[in-house]
Specification:
The protein is of the alpha/beta class and about 500 residues long. The chain contains 21 helices and seven strands. The chain is globular.
Length: about 500
């Protein structure tokens, strides 16, 4: 019993550490913003500008040739929207070369070719690249496009992003820093208010950019390229070893390898590139499976190099936490499975101290995560922000089993197939996470729903966690059932 209690409390402690780390990032952002504001006030009094130095070099750099890569796979409707924005870009057509890396197999390539012909007639240099086989998935397409390229900079956009007109004029001057590998713009969300799922996703990604990326960028630490809406220095891609399909999160993999080679990275959160968020849970599960398993897969392959790198130990630790944060999901799954037994033991032993030991850990984890997302939230009033944060926590707990399985796949090397997130207007999701997994998620819900029936006192002490997990798990399970099965009662 004692060993079980010790292991259980250690489990709570580790989960709390991941939560506290996020709170620390939020506090650091607040402190840095305060220092930045004071610096701006001081420059205003002195009549100086923070961006005055190097402006001449920046204006010359803004004319540098750019290769623009648009990887697409069965996403013609949203790609047409992206291509329609090209004519509004504030660049000369001769300054950029556009590659449409089209791996589609749904018969949409002919329509894409027609749109490309129209752009060529307007004077844009556009290549329509087709491959016989989709070797290496997105990484393979990007690597194939770079073969023979001479442009010093490479911009990448997924098909559901819409490039703002001033994107290149805004980001290219940052590369006057010769040690800069890439500049990442912030994502915006065209459909953020479509439903509860998109509202929660917008909050998650706002926190990713506004807190995690911002504090790491300002502190000179590692943060990953997000696969789209950014510009790379081509020599940094080559120096880091190029795009590799050994990881299904090829963007994180290349970013880490570039950082390990001594390159720096920068976030431009004042430049926002809008995109579409998945609108249903089946598409969201596909996206999360790739992001979670791929990040763990990359961490497993590069963690030794991260630990041995010459970067300061605090930067190495932060880089490890940045790419291993999803390890919390198997820990939460263990917590959910062992929580009833742990509380039952304490009730039998009538140990009041141990009986309430969960509470500080639960508060530490939930309040720190709540603070993290509260600081990132910029939408709605106070009550609306609170509702979104509670829905976010419920969704995160509801995805526990799904994401725990993705972590195990990443650790075991089973994450090999790049399954792209279905786009709005394109091919719908073909998988909802697997029938077997849906059954297991249903069993986990029943395991905890039955708790009040056979052990009311245990359920009472587990109530805070149950109030978050059960609505989230029900939401995830019901939303993941294909509509036809839902209608038929299956």
């Amino acid at each position: 019993m004692l060993l079980f209690e010790i292991a259980y409390l250690l489990l709570l402690l580790v989960i709390s550490v991941f939560g506290v780390h996020r709170a620390v990032l939020a506090i650091e952002v607040a402190l840095r913003s305060r220092r930045t504001d004071r610096g701006a006030e001081r420059r205003a009094r002195d009549g100086t500008s923070a961006s005055g130095a190097g402006e001449a070099g920046g204006s010359a750099l803004s004319l540098a040739p750019v290769l623009i890569q648009l990887p697409v796979y069965n996403d013609a409707p949203v790609l047409h929207r992206l291509l329609a924005s090209v004519s509004r870009w504030e660049v000369e057509p001769t300054q950029v070369r556009i590659q449409v890396l089209d791996d589609s197999d749904d018969g949409s390539s002919e329509g894409i070719a027609s749109r490309i012909d129209a752009l060529r007639a307007e004077g844009w240099r556009v290549e329509h690249r087709r491959r016989e086989r989709r070797d290496g998935y997105k990484a393979g397409a990007l690597a194939a496009g770079l073969e023979g390229a001479t442009e010093p900079f490479v911009a990448i956009f997924d098909s559901d992003f819409v490039v703002p007109p001033d994107f290149f004029r805004a980001l290219l001057p940052d590369f006057r820093d010769p040690g800069l590998a890439y500049v990442q713009a912030r994502w915006g969300f065209a459909n953020a208010e479509e439903n509860l799922l998109t509202r929660v996703q917008a909050l998650i990604l706002d926190a990713h950019f506004r807190i995690e990326h911002r504090v790491r960028s300002q502190g000179g630490r590692f943060f990953n390229f997000n696969g789209t809406a950014g510009i790379w220095r081509r020599s940094a891609i080559e120096d880091a070893g190029g795009w590799k399909s050994s990881s299904i999160t090829e963007d994180l993999d290349l970013s880490l390898r570039a950082w390990l080679r001594g390159w720096r990275m920068r976030l431009r959160d004042d430049v926002v590139v809008p995109c579409d968020l998945p609108t249903d849970l089946r598409a969201y599960r596909i996206q999360q499976n790739r992001w979670v398993s791929g990040s763990i897969q990359t961490c497993a392959s590069l963690h030794e190099r991260i630990c041995a790198s010459p970067h300061p130990w605090t930067h190495r630790l932060d880089a490890l936490l940045a790419c291993s944060g999803n390890l919390v999901y198997p820990l939460i799954l263990l917590l959910l499975l062992t929580l009833p037994h742990a509380i039952a033991i304490r009730l039998v032993e009538r140990d009041r101290l141990l009986l309430h030991a969960d509470l500080p850990f639960f508060l530490c984890a939930t309040l720190s995560v709540g603070l993290f997302y509260w600081c990132a939230s910029a939408r709605g009033g106070m009550l609306d922000r609170l509702r979104r944060i509670l829905a976010l926590m419920a969704l995160g707990l509801g995805m526990t089993l799904h994401n725990a399985r993705a972590v195990l796949r990443g650790l075991s090397g089973q994450a090999r197939i790049f399954e792209r997130t279905p786009k709005q207007g394109g091919e719908g999701p073909t998988r909802g996470g697997g029938d077997r997994l849906l059954w297991l998620e249903g069993l986990l819900i029943l395991h905890l729903v039955a708790l009040p029936l056979h052990a009311p006192q245990v359920a009472l002490h587990a109530l805070p966690l149950l109030l978050l997990f059960l609505p989230g798990a029900g939401w995830v399970l019901f939303g993941s059932i294909p509509p036809r099965r839902r209608r038929s009662g299956a």
